[in-house]
Amino acid sequence: MIVAIVLALAVGLLGWVYQALKPPPPKICGSTNGPPLTSPRVKLRDGRHLAYREVGVPKEEAQYKIIICHSYNNSKDMHLPASQEFIEEIKLYIVLFDRAGYGESDPYPARSVKSEAFDIQELADKLQLGTKFYVMGWSMGACSIWSCLNYIPHRLLGASLVVPLVNYWWPSVPSALSRQAFRSIPPSFQQTFRVARYTPWLYYWWRTQKWFPRLVGDDTPCDSDLEILKSLSGHLNHNQEKVTQQGEHESLNRDILASFGSKWEFDPIVDLSNPFPDNNGSVHIWQGCEDRIIPIAFTRFIAEKLPWIQYHEVLNGGHLIIHDAEKFEAIVRALLAR
């Protein structure tokens, strides 16, 4: 009798553990009982679809074409403060896309930093943007730009990394700097990144458990970020409800796991070389001096080790500088300058 009870409890416990670790299936856009399709999409070679949004002048009339990668918990519908006057002045065409699993782009369980570079390349080809184009990534979206610089540098006219997310486990970064930078970010960020790095199989449970804080800001945003949030009524995205509509695991969780849960196949600091040795293009990093998410000491180290990257520090700027009209215009003009 006791053996039977113990076995029943063990089976029940195993069943609970299995359910706790197993994420639910995604709700695919356009499928039965899934979210509706409302955006244009391109079909990739592997059968997946990427949803995109076009901003600016028609691409046939554009002098400059930029692909922008959104950040964590965002989408192609992120707020862009580009004025119509600015867009028409320089004949600018921008395409934003939902990264895999976000918004209306199909989930991709094998998503990685590497795969995002080739998603960008296929998107450009499907939209017929030409043999070369500009790329820009904000925060976690900048991981995709590091990947472009490594895997498809021959397709780039220029690249801009705006408050780029850093990986604290890049091998070439001195351990003292990594520890210092890691300790400067909010404690809940530290805990979440550690789980993703060392026990990725536990990550879904970590994101759904209620016992410990999970990836929430422990610090008040800096003054400039608060002003931007106030001006946008707290909405950095026009359709926030669509960001994770296919499932948080397919969007948010896989974003963290791709950036921190698996070893990058390259180290940006030692493996990248200047894609524009003839000065026919440029690479930029923009860092807010008051950013409370990205440690400025880390980006300064990157700029020092990669002097071919033009490094810009924004005095009193925070993590949301891309949403400031004046700063966004400066970022774009620097990227397009020859």
Can you offer a commentary on this structure?
The protein is α/β, with parallel strands linked by helices. Helices cover 38% and strands 14% of the residues. It contains 12 helices and 8 strands. The chain has helices at residues 2-21, 84-90, 113-126, 142-151, 175-184, 187-198, 203-208, 223-231, 248-261, 268-271, 296-305, 325-336; strands at residues 41-43, 49-56, 64-69, 92-97, 133-138, 156-162, 282-288, 309-314. Strands 1-2-4-3-5-6-7-8 form an 8-stranded mixed β-sheet, with helices on both faces. Mean pLDDT is 91; it is low at 3-19.
In short:
This protein has 338 residues and is α/β, with parallel strands linked by helices. 38% of the residues lie in helices and 14% in strands.
Please, what is the average pLDDT?
Answer: 91
H/E element order? HEEEHEHEHEHHHHHHEHEH
Radius of gyration: 21 Å
Beta-strand content bin: 5-15%
Choose one word for the global shape.
globular
Low-confidence stretches: 3-19
- Rounded to the nearest angstrom, the distance between the terminal CA atoms is 81 Å
Helical residues, percent: 25-40%
Largest sheet: 8 strands, mixed
The oligomerization state is single chain
What is the number of E strands? Answer: 8
Number of helices: 12
Counting helices, strands and paired strands, the structural category is alpha/beta
**Strands side by side in the biggest sheet:** 1-2-4-3-5-6-7-8
